[in-house]
Recover the amino acids of this structure.
């Protein structure tokens, strides 16, 4: 549904559908994951949808013009998705906001977030290596980055550990600490502020995103999303970027009486599967 909304944006009204391209669109429509409107194969929005799906599925495009068109579709999608995230966040929709954020990660990486393992973002990844990792219970990039150096070789079989650890150093590893500070405001009603410390513990000194399938250079940024996971209500969101470490604050809305099921989620704007979740309820009890 969100892919449909993205492809339907007015920014794509002018996407060129050249003479005879509906035939190429028909061929593409038979290969993509989700069906498109077969009665409007000459519609720019249908073409945008096909190009995005082809990008996520890493399909070969029929002619070189389509590569140019895909670049322009991806380029414009960033602004559209930022707007979609703003709308969802302002409406207080937690799961919709997270879905749009994941869609942005998919655009950056050219992968399906629900179908492709985030391990495929590692440049040297291959079928054998992914086989040895998953057989040992490692299914996400997050798990792989958290592995101690010593156990890396035992988990990856015959694959050269130096090559893998070199690739892993290109991803950010972030340590997140959250403290809750309560302060009395008027009428002794206690408002809470979260103090959030973020620190990159990887040895890389660049904030450049590793996104080889996205046509432009991009710097990494993150969202801090405060939400109630049982009611799927988004309480606050903050966008941050930093190179070494960052201390930032977020207000907990004063009408929130219980912090039960309240989580602070750190979401990348360019990598799949690197989310971190902290339960605020536990902090509140200290």
């Amino acid at each position: 549904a969100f892919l449909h909304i993205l492809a339907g944006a007015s920014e794509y009204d002018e996407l060129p559908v050249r003479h005879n391209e509906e035939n190429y669109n028909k061929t593409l429509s038979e290969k993509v994951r989700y069906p498109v409107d077969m009665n409007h194969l000459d519609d720019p929005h249908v073409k945008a949808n096909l190009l995005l799906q082809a990008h996520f599925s890493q399909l070969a495009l029929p002619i070189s013009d389509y590569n140019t068109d895909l670049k322009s579709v991806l380029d414009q999608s960033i602004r559209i998705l930022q707007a979609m995230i703003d709308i969802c966040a302002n409406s207080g929709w937690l799961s919709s906001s997270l879905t749009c954020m994941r869609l942005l990660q998919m655009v950056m990486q050219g992968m399906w977030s629900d179908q492709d393992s985030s391990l495929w973002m590692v440049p040297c990844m291959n079928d054998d290596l992914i086989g040895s990792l998953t057989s040992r219970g490692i299914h996400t990039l997050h798990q792989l980055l958290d592995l101690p150096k010593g156990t890396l070789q035992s988990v990856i079989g015959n694959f050269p550990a130096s090559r893998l650890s070199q690739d892993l150093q290109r991803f950010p590893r972030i340590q997140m600490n959250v403290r809750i500070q309560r302060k009395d405001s008027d009428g002794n009603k206690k408002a809470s502020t979260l103090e959030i410390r973020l620190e990159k513990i990887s040895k890389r000194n660049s904030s450049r995103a590793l996104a080889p399938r996205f046509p432009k250079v991009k710097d990494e940024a993150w969202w801090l999303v405060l939400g109630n996971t049982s009611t799927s209500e988004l309480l606050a969101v903050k966008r941050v970027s930093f190179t070494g470490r960052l201390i930032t604050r977020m207000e907990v809305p004063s009408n929130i009486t219980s912090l039960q099921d309240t989580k602070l989620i750190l979401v990348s704007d360019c990598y799949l599967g690197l989310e971190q979740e902290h339960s605020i309820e536990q902090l509140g009890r200290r």
